[in-house]
Specification:
The protein is mainly α and about 80 residues long. It has a domain of about 35 residues. It is built from 3 helices and no strands.
């Protein structure tokens, strides 16, 4: 059933592109699911994480890059354990 829905969505988009509809990329979106844009809302502020937040251990990014095929496989084996 989902494949049929996906096919129909692509077909609707194709027909909209063929008719040179300026909103062709969103023509297959159901209007009852789309929400109204609230223009009166305050802008959202997104705090970027620190660059060091991702590292849980003392390994730096330079030490983590492996280019040799044998080392890549060894690194994969270590991560797979």
């Amino acid at each position: 059933m989902t494949e049929l829905e996906e096919y129909m969505s692509q077909f609707i988009t194709f027909l909209a592109h063929r008719e040179k509809n300026p909103d062709a990329h969103i023509s297959a979106l159901p209007l009852d699911i789309m929400t109204n844009k609230e223009f009166a809302k305050d802008p959202m502020s997104i705090d970027a994480p620190n660059t060091n937040d991702y590292a849980e251990d003392d390994v730096t990014a330079d030490e983590d890059i492996v280019t040799n095929a044998a080392e890549k496989y060894r690194k994969y084996e270590e991560l797979a354990r």
